[in-house]
Amino acid sequence: MLACSVGSCLLAVLSLVLLCTALFTDYWLVAFGPSDTAHSGLWQECRADVCVSPPHVTGYIQATRAFLILGALATAVSLLSLLLSVTSCVHIPVSTNLLASIAAFTAGSCTLLAMGVYTGESWHKNQDGQIQVTFQWSFYLGWAALPLLALSGTFALVAHQRHVGYERL
Q1: 3-state secondary structure of 39
Q2: Domain membership of residue 158 as a residue range
Q3: Domain containing residue 94: CATH number
Q4: Distance CA 137, CA 28 (A)
Q5: If you ran DSSP here, which 8-state letter would residue 90 be given?
Q6: Which listed residue, of 18, 39, 61, 81, carries a Cα 20 to 30 Å from 159's Cα?
Q7: Phi/psi at 130 (nearest 5 deg)?
Q8: What is the DSSP letter of 35?
Q9: CA distance 124 to 75
């Protein structure tokens, strides 16, 4: 079914944009203090418009980075498979919709792991009563990609199920 393949393709594009934006921006956490504001991402920390890469990266940041990169790569594989299924320019013996579905669900799993690890480790990070630490838009973009990946995988799976015959294998 072409509509499901196209819908899945659009959702995969949006998911990839959200994941890459979340991965490379620095507004995961923002700390509001009495005299200053700071924000941080997965790659650098900024205070007073001066951004630096931390000399020591904690394990949960490394895990979040790794799983988000894997999620973005799996999303790219899903997107390429969907583009092949929509254009039908290359005939391969494996269903591209099935491959796209598996890749999208894998990307969703990696994203869930990354966001869960970061959320769990950052939830009670604030120990100072004068500083308010909040999650910000980069963090929420990472979470927003998760349901889009699930929908993309579901649409690709429905498109795969609509084909009859030996091509389903």
Answers
A1: strand
A2: 2-168
A3: 1.20.140.150
A4: 7
A5: S
A6: 18
A7: -90, -10
A8: S
A9: 31
In one-letter notation, the amino acid at residue 166 is Y
Q: Is-contact 156 97, C-beta < 8 A?
A: yes
- The total number of structural domains that make up the chain: 1
Residue 41 and residue 93: Cα distance in Å, rounded? Answer: 42
The pTM for the full model equals 0.87
Amino acid identity, position 129: G
Question: Which pairs count as long-range contacts for 117-126, CB under 8 Å and 24+ apart, including other chains?
Answer: 117/60, 117/63, 117/64, 117/67, 118/28, 118/60, 118/61, 118/64, 118/142, 120/60, 121/58, 121/60, 122/28, 122/29, 122/60, 125/29, 126/31
